[in-house]
Amino acid sequence: MLNNQYKEEMLQLIESISDDGMVKIDELKQYFGEEPVKEVLANLEQLDTIEINGNGNLYLTEKGKKEANQIIRRHRLAERLLHDVLRVEDEEAAEKHACDFEHILDKEVTDNICTLLGHPKFCPDGRPIPPG
Description:
The protein is mainly alpha-helical and 132 residues long. Helix content is 61%, strand content 8%.
């Protein structure tokens, strides 16, 4: 059985590596392996967050894009929190903790973190934070 974190990681990865909104399934297998990808993609397709065409390409649906951007938002705000407030200097540790945080933050807590941080536009690496 798939956990929610695994599905969120897949959506986030699809959004991050998509080229003109498209990702080749083989690209995902490089990150996750063949069997997990098949199971996750079948589940994401059932949830109407992705569409798969006959050429081995997939696309995020509007619902999928929205979910992926919210995951990215939580991650990048967690990075800002760790960097700006908690002063975590070790980039590798900060990335790991941000990845853990993104899966436990709900909308209210995410919005409160954003407010606490003064509604930042970019994460510490300079990547844009999607709006809430």
